[in-house]
Amino acid sequence: TAGNSPAQGEDTAVMLYKGQRRSRYALAELLRGEAEEAGEVDPKDKNVEPAALGEERTSSREAASGEKLLETFFTPLSEKENASRTKREKGKHLPIRVVGSAFKRDVLDEAKAGNTILLQLFEDSCFLCFLMRPFLNSVSALLAEYNIPVTMKRLNIEKNDFPEGCVVTRATPTFVLHRGAHEEGERWSEFRPRDFIEKLEKEFDLPVELREKLHALLDLLHERFKRFGLLSV
Predict the structure, then answer these.
(1) Is residue 164 within 8 Å of residue 183, measured between CB atoms?
(2) Are the beta carbons of 94 and 133 closer than 8 angstroms?
(3) Which long-range contacts (CB under 8 A, 24 or more apart) does 7-11 make?
(4) Are residues 117 and 184 in the same domain?
(5) Which residue segment(s) compose the domain that 53 sits in?
(6) Which one of 74, 107, 127 terminates a domain?
(7) pLDDT tens, position by position, for the chain (233 residues)?
(8) Which residues of 175-198 are buried (b: 16+ CB within 10 A; e: fewer)?
(9) Can you say whether residue 149 is alpha, beta or left, with left for phi > 0 and alpha for psi between -120 and 50 degrees?
(10) 155 assigned to some structural domain
(11) Which of 74, 162, 68, 89 is closest to 123 using CA atoms?
(12) Is residue 138 part of a domain?
């Protein structure tokens, strides 16, 4: 109602949600013209005044405009693929960015083909994701160096709606393991760096030397946390 509208004094408003996106619209803006559609004017009717015919056409345009708003908002959002970025990430064994429109091909289909994918769901606004990024880059490179059969990938859920087959989450970072023919991946409850490393050790047969290097990375990450903490004081 107007009384409990997010903006006091305005008409009834609705909030549209899809993935991590949301947008507020006046209800009248989305439904405008529907009342007129119930009694549309026949343009061939000679008894209709020209002014009424013009009003009917305007109403149709307005109704289409509201329909267009809904279609546009609920069209799945996806980043554009970036071939040069992907090539660079693969060459340096960094976590590979995937986009919503290619999620099935780059995650689900690859997992079904026998490849194990460890997917990180992240947001640009997630501070922990930012702090962990160099750490995860190093983890990905080490896993490749020791030929551990897993590929790390990343999906930005601020710039991509949740694709079909993707775990839905409101918390980031979230890690999801896609393995074999399972349609939906296994969501890890572990997101803290040390818990993440321990989960890797449980899921994969890691040599002692690699385990030592991964734990050394934890020490570097803790130092990074500490320095950012000092900057915020």
Answers:
(1) no
(2) no
(3) none
(4) yes
(5) 13-74
(6) 74
(7) 444 444 455 678 888 888 888 888 888 877 764 544 444 445 455 544 544 444 444 444 445 577 888 888 888 899 999 999 999 999 999 999 999 999 999 999 999 999 999 999 999 999 889 989 999 999 999 999 999 999 999 999 999 999 999 999 989 999 999 998 776 799 998 788 899 999 999 999 999 999 999 999 998 888 877 777 766 65
(8) bbbbbeeeeebeebebbebeebbe
(9) beta
(10) yes
(11) 162
(12) yes
What are the CA-CA distances from residue 94 to residues 43, 123, 203 (Å)? 63, 17, 20
pLDDT score for 230: 65
The verdict on 70 and 94 lying in the same domain is: no
CATH for 98: 3.40.30.10
pTM, two decimal places: 0.76
Amino acid (1-letter code) at residue 64: A
Asked whether the CA dihedral 71, 55, 27, 21 is positive or negative, the reply is positive
Please indicate, yes or no, whether residues 171 and 222 belong to a single structural domain of this protein. Answer: yes
Alpha-carbon span 150 to 200, nearest angstrom: 10
pLDDT for 60: 46
Tokens 């074999």 correspond to 180
The whole-number pLDDT of residue 32 equals 66
The reply to whether 1 falls in a domain is no
Distance between CA 57 and CA 64 in Å, rounded?
11
- Locate 21 and state its tokens: 């996106």
Q: Please give the tally of structural domains in the chain.
A: 2
Pairing, β 21-26 against β 13-18: antiparallel
**Structure token pair of residue 124:** 């640009």
Query: Looking at the structure, do residues 210 and 116 belong to the same domain, yes or no?
Result: yes
Residue 87 DSSP code: H
